[in-house]
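Summary for the steering committee. One of the milestones for this cycle was to obtain a three-dimensional model of the protein with manganese (II) ion bound, which we needed before selecting residues for the alanine scan. The sequence and ligand used are listed below.
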Amino acid sequence: MDTKPDVSAEHPISEKWVWVGPHRPAMPRAFLEALRANWAPGEPVAEEHVAAAHTRARRDALADAFSSRTLVIPAGSLKVRANDTDFRFRPETDYFYLTGADEPDCVLVISPSAAGARHTLYVPARRDQRSHEFITDSRYGELWVGARRGPEEAAIYYGIDAAPLEQLDKDLVELAGTEILVRRGVDERVDALVSGHAEDARVAEVLSEMRLVKDAFEIAQLEDAIAHTVQGFQDVVRGLRSARQRGERVIEGVFNLRARVEGNDVGYGTIAAAGPHATTLHWMTNDGPVNDGDLLLLDAGVEGHQLYTADVTRTMPVNGTFSPAQRRIYDLVLAAQEAGIGAVRPGAAFRAAHEAAIRVLVEGLHELGILAESPEESLQPERQLHRRYTLHGVSHMLGLDVHDCANARDEIYNGELAEGYVLTVEPGLYFQPHDLTVPEEYRGIGVRIEDDILVTAQGSRNLSAGLPRRAEDVEAWMAGLWAAGETNLGL
Ligand SMILES: [Mn+2]
């Protein structure tokens, strides 16, 4: 009897065998056919996604902005970490904003029709027990990746018409009579389906500009993400004894644990920067020591289940007490932040917070003798020598993306603030360890204080006020957490 599989990549199925991929033994057809029988039906989808009404309204608003055109907005695909292992999937932000859907490879199509815009979500067909792909397809097969929402389930859960992804190519051909704009740079396969249009970039631009104003639902999501971020910062303080033994890795791990338990994940790579690492703006290596006498700069945010993220920074003394030199720099950054937050209100320029905060920093740098020239001289656009120590802008928009609304037109992003905008105010001072222009006592000190500020009808509200900012309040907060008991991580 011949039992050698007569299948290959070129001929994947024969009478007795099914080829399932390189280095994997072929599977007997008899087994795959038997596997399809005798399963109880799955649970029907009983509820709608929490944001379904919001996403529907957003799609309608977007369709109005592009009246007679078809819009194609992909979710994006899995990204390779190494060889055949992928990073955990996170949908592209514009797509998520319009659907609330978090599975990879899906595509939203908004097309004009006589009865108003049609919204269709294209999702891969189920690979459940009804198909041999249940076990043979390691990308979609539900034995490998768990149950997915196919078109039927997606339609109910997301409150949208849905169709099999496998039908997208054909449907786009039928829509070729309309102008088709694609949200490009997200899914190569989708980019290749439709030839480029001069106004493709408008899709991302309009969506970024729509996303500038957060409604009550979105603000509640941000508040939730920030509340869990506050918990994460408390966890880090409670675990500082372990961090002093094992270094920055402990800080990253402790914060990220909270993010993963309470939310979707961290909204960006946690910056756990102790001592002179705080002078590296995006220190995400997080493998250094945490020493008594150092400052710890922790820039971290929980991304909630609806993918809104916090973005908060606190700088705290590892041993619980600022040294006099650390305290001078800290108080200066805090004064700058106060000035920046004070400049946030509807109608103010986006840059007003930056300008107010930088002026305070420049005056302080001059008083400390670090900046030799006068504040007025340094603030000249063509001088700006203070930027050696201030390094970055003070604000960015915040929302689903940590640097939110990045595709808005510059005159809009840098225009006037309006009620419902959320932005960070995050001045810092950074004295590199080998900077000869800096008195020795300040070298290696990096301080940043960052809060998430909502523009309200009257002014602003600090959404991250749950974490202390004044130096004495930070010290009291740390002492209080330690008095209640430090976490023994056994590390
Ligand atoms: Mn930030």
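Key point for the committee: Residues 311, 396, 424, 426, 450 surround manganese (II) ion (CB under 6 Å).
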